[in-house]
Amino acid sequence: MAIVRFQRSKERPRSLIIPLFAVSAAALALLWIFYSSAIRASLFSYASPMGAATDSQKVMDPAGLDWKYLYWGNRIDCPGKHCDSCAGLGHQESSLRCALEEALFLQRVFVMPSRMCISATHNTKGILHQPSNSSSDEMWAASSCAMDSLYDLDLISSKVPVILDNSKIWFHIVSTSMKLGGKGVAPVQGVSRVDLKENSQYSNILLINRTASPLAWFMECKDRTNRSSVMLPHTFLPMMAAKKLREAADKITKILGDYDAIHVRRGDILKTRKDRFGVERSLHPHLDRDTRPEFIQQRIAKWIPPGRILFIASNERKPGFFSPLSVRYKLAYSSNFSDILDPVIENNYQLFMVERLILAGARTFVKTYKEDKHDLSLTDDPKKNTKNWQIPVFTMDG
Ligand SMILES: *[C@@H]1O[C@H](CO)[C@@H](O)[C@H](O)[C@H]1NC(C)=O
Ligand SMILES: *[C@@H]1O[C@H](CO)[C@@H](O)[C@H](O)[C@H]1NC(C)=O
Ligand SMILES: *[C@@H]1O[C@H](CO)[C@@H](O)[C@H](O)[C@H]1NC(C)=O
Ligand SMILES: *[C@@H]1O[C@H](CO)[C@@H](O)[C@H](O)[C@H]1NC(C)=O
User: Fold this and answer.
1) Left (φ > 0), alpha (ψ -120 to 50) or beta: where does 73 sit?
2) Is the domain of 40 the same as that of 54?
3) Which residue in 22, 154, 389, 396 has the most C-beta neighbors within 10 A?
């Protein structure tokens, strides 16, 4: 923030006031640095899941601000149909990002679920044992992983302060909120973000307990076509990977050196269904074609010259599926680095987090879908579910 302010002051038109202004801006910037590092220091202690300091010390931070909290429940996308099952990592991240944006907007500490659900269809690593005779809570524990095994909460807290819902500080906040009664906790459903911020009925309350849309948490952010209200980019959570995942990705990118990368989504998104005439139809009619090696090679030729190292991240499980590309490129997969990955990867969500960091480190990165106007993509089919089931195309001119 300090830097932003300082740069803005530089852009002002020249005048005699400038030297004086610059001096005061510098002083202001310095003040900001001290101020924000004090806040950050206090946030880091907040974020520590096993928090060493005593709870009462943590209710007030050194800058004298008392923190207020935002809670969306203990499972992403629950209540609703996603309490026992769940979506893939990307969907859950959209939901988590939506909640974090609200916390940022309200300047409240976000209470993060301490575990993230792992979708069975997105985990082929098969480490999930699901005891046949267990309670739904036990099932949940078996099909989920610790949030801090995916994300670095200290890193997240440097942008949006978070605590975990199994931390001491959270239990302290819950008991304090109950003692305070109406001033302690406000149950909220369907109240706008602006109201939560501006209406004193909510703004002064220690804990806002939101019941989010039963469809999915990210629905709370759906109607925001206003771009200026989107506060965290899609890349925010992927870049917040847990330290051991970032370290593994670093080791691999160092070994790869100067490389390009493609992310090839196949698997579940290729699903077709038969229409009433028995004809197969797909929501992404060109995707199956566009993600086959022959078509990938034609498509990426203009962006990636032959001889380059090409890192491929994909959910395609057929061995050797991408081998035809080895005629032009030196292929590498995460499986080439099992000595680095096996000791740290426990499930497919962690693997995908490492792969995303490797993809992000490539000189040229081609995504499956175009998500942003600057993206290179393998297909021109839109990512968004068009609800339009079409006949898949496998020829070049289709
Ligand atoms: C499941 O648990 C119940 C009660 O705890 C027990 O009676 C039953 O035999 C168990 N079934 C299996 C298959 O373990
Ligand atoms: C938040 O609200 C839900 C639903 O009303 C309730 O079950 C839960 O106990 C509340 N949690 C807290 C910490 O107030
Ligand atoms: C867009 O969002 C910003 C920040 O939340 C707000 O100040 C502005 O009034 C909004 N604009 C419209 C057109 O809603
Ligand atoms: C990665 O492994 C494949 C075989 O699975 C091999 O063909 C390829 O050369 C390896 N790539 C690197 C960079 O070691």
Assistant:
1) left
2) no
3) 154
Residue bearing the bigger pLDDT, 257 or 389:
257
Mutational test site, ligand 3, from 229, 230, 231, 232, max ligand atoms within 8 Å of CB: 229
Q: Which atom of ligand 1 is nearest to the CA of 133?
A: 1
pTM equals: 0.75
Quote the CA–CA distance of 293 and 202 in Å, as a whole number: 55
Backbone torsions φ then ψ of 314, nearest 5 degrees: -155, 155
Output the CA 226–ligand 3 centroid distance in Å.
Answer: 6
Residues in the chain: 398
Q: Which of 209, 240, 271 delimits the end of a domain? A: 240
CA distance 345 to 37: 33
Residues 6 and 71 in one domain: no
Percent residues over pLDDT 90 in the chain: 50
Does residue 388 sit within a domain? no
Question: DSSP letters of 226-255?
Answer: -GGG--S-TTTTGGGB-HHHHHHHHHHHHH
Buried b vs exposed e over 71-83: b needs ≥16 C-beta within 10 Å? bbbbbbbbebebe
Say whether both 61 and 19 belong to one domain: no
Instruction: Kindly report the protein residue whose alpha carbon is nearest to atom 11 of ligand 4.
Output: 332
* Residue 316 belongs to domain with CATH number: 3.40.50
Give yes or no: residues 303 and 216 share one domain.
no
**Cα–Cα distance between 338 and 343 in angstroms, integer?**
8
Residue 4 pLDDT more than 80? no
Check if the beta carbon of residue 98 is closer than 8 Å to that of residue 218.
yes
Mean pLDDT of 105-132: 72
CB neighbours of residue 232 within 10 Å: 15
Verify that 285 and 312 share a domain, yes or no: yes
Q: Does residue 384 sit within a domain?
A: no
Question: Which protein residues touch ligand 2 with a CB less than 6 Å away?
Answer: 71, 174, 185, 187, 209, 211
Domain count, the chain: 3
CB of residue 133 inside a 6 A radius of ligand 1: yes
Which pair of tokens denotes residue 132?
């046949």
Does residue 52 sit in the same domain as residue 155?
yes
What domain range is 291 assigned to? 243-377
Q: Are residue 170 and residue 156 in the same domain, yes or no?
A: yes
